[in-house]
C-alpha cells in the first residue's frame, strides 16, 4: 500500500515538531508545507513553502496537519473538509464554540476523519494511568486536580491561558474520568498587560460525581505540569513533563501515635514509582491519526470531543466574568 500523502500548514513552534515526526512515522510522506509568513525553522527542507491552504490542497494530499494560530483553524479546516481531506487540527478546535461546531459538522458531513491535537492524551504516563483507572486500581475516583504553570510563551497572541493551556487539562480530566463536565466555577486575572487572561483557578464537577480543580497560568517562573487523581485506594501523581507516574497507596498499618492518628483521614502507605515505556506523545498521536484515516483504529481525539473541551473553556471564561457557577451544555 502506498504511503499517505501529508500536507502541513503552519510552520511555527508546533509545526516544526510535526514536520519532524511526520517524516519519522511509517506510512506517511510529507509532500507539502504551507505558511503565509514563511519557514522560520527551516523544516520544509527541499519542499517549496506554499502560501495558502488552497495551494496545499492542490498538491494532492490525503491528510493534513493544521498548526496555524487558533483564529485560523475554522477557515483552514473548512477548506480541507470541502476538498475531502482528513485533518488533525491543533488544539483548541477553534476560537469560538460556533466555529468549532461548524468544523465538527463539516468533517462529519463528509465522512472524514477530523481530529484535534490534544496531545496530553498521548502522554505515556497518562495513557498508563487511564488503563489503571479503568481496571479499578484506584477504586472509586474522588478528585482530579491539575497544575499547569510556567512563563509566558511569546508565540501565543490570539487566545488566553484558558483556551491555550487550560484546554489540555479539561480534556485529559474528562478523558481520564470517562465523564463530561457538568459545571465549573472559575476566576481569572490579567497581569501581563495583554488583552487575554493569563491566570485561572477553576473548580468543576463531572457528570459522574468526580470533582476537579485546575490551576493554570503563564506567570510562574518555574514550569509545572502535574495531574493528581485521588480515589478510594490512594492517589496517582503524573508529571507530564517527564512522563513519570507514581502511586501513593493508602496505608494498611495502623497509626499508633494517637495525637497524629486523630486528624488523619487515611494513613500513609507505600509509594511506588511505576516503570512504563515512554514513546514520544506526538509520534503516538500521529500514528493514531494515520490509523484512523486507514480505518484501522479510533484512538484520535475527535472533533466532537474537542468541541466538548471548548465548551468547558467557554464556561470557565463565562464564570470568571459573571462570578457564578456555570452548567455545561449537554
TrEMBL record:
Keyword hit for Cell inner membrane: no
GO function term, MF aspect, one: nucleotide binding
SUPFAM superfamilies listed in its UniProt record: Glyceraldehyde-3-phosphate dehydrogenase-like, C-terminal domain (SSF55347), NAD(P)-binding Rossmann-fold domains (SSF51735)
Gfo/Idh/MocA-like oxidoreductase N-terminal domain boundaries: 4-118
Keywords attached to this entry: NAD
Origin superkingdom: Bacteria
Domain GFO/IDH/MocA-like oxidoreductase: 127-236
Pfam short name (any one): GFO_IDH_MocA
Keyword NAD: yes
PANTHER family reported for this sequence: BILIVERDIN REDUCTASE A
The protein, known as: Dehydrogenase
Organism, scientific name: Arthrobacter alpinus
Amino acid at each position: 500500500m502506498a504511503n499517505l500523502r501529508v500536507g502541513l500548514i503552519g510552520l511555527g513552534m508546533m509545526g516544526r515538531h510535526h514536520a519532524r515526526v511526520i517524516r519519522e512515522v511509517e506510512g506517511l510522506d510529507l509532500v507539502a508545507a504551507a505558511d503565509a509568513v514563511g519557514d522560520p525553522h527551516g523544516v520544509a527542507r527541499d519542499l517549496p513553502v506554499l502560501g495558502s491552504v488552497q495551494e496545499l490542497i492542490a498538491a494532492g494530499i490525503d491528510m493534513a496537519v493544521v498548526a496555524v494560530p487558533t483564529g485560523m483553524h475554522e477557515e483552514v479546516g473548512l477548506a480541507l473538509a470541502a476538498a475531502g481531506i482528513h485533518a488533525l487540527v491543533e488544539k483548541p478546535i477553534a476560537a469560538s464554540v460556533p466555529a468549532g461546531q461548524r468544523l465538527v459538522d463539516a468533517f462529519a458531513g463528509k465522512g472524514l476523519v477530523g481530529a484535534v491535537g490534544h496531545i496530553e492524551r498521548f502522554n505515556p504516563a497518562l495513557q498508563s494511568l487511564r488503563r489503571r483507572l479503568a481496571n479499578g486500581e484506584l477504586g472509586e475516583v474522588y478528585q482530579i486536580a491539575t497544575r499547569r504553570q510556567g512563563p509566558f510563551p511569546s508565540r501565543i497572541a490570539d487566545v488566553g491561558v484558558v483556551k491555550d493551556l487550560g484546554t489540555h487539562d479539561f480534556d485529559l480530566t474528562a478523558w481520564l474520568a470517562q465523564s463530561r463536565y457538568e459545571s465549573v466555577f472559575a476566576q481569572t486575572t490579567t497581569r501581563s498587560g495583554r488583552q487575554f487572561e493569563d491566570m485561572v483557578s477553576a473548580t468543576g464537577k463531572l457528570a459522574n460525581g468526580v470533582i476537579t480543580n485546575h490551576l493554570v497560568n503563564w506567570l510562574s517562573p518555574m514550569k509545572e505540569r502535574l495531574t493528581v487523581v485521588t480515589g478510594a485506594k490512594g492517589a496517582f501523581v503524573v508529571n507530564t513533563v517527564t512522563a513519570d507516574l507514581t502511586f501513593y497507596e493508602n496505608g494498611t498499618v495502623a497509626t499508633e501515635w494517637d495525637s497524629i492518628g486523630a486528624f488523619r483521614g487515611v494513613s500513609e502507605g507505600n509509594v511506588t514509582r511505576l516503570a512504563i515505556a515512554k514513546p514520544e506523545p506526538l509520534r503516538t498521536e500521529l500514528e493514531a491519526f494515520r490509523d484512523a484515516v486507514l480505518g484501522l483504529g479510533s484512538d484520535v481525539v475527535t472533533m466532537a470531543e474537542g468541541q466538548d473541551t471548548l465548551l468547558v473553556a467557554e464556561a470557565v471564561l463565562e464564570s470568571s466574568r459573571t462570578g457564578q457557577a456555570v452548567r455545561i451544555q449537554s
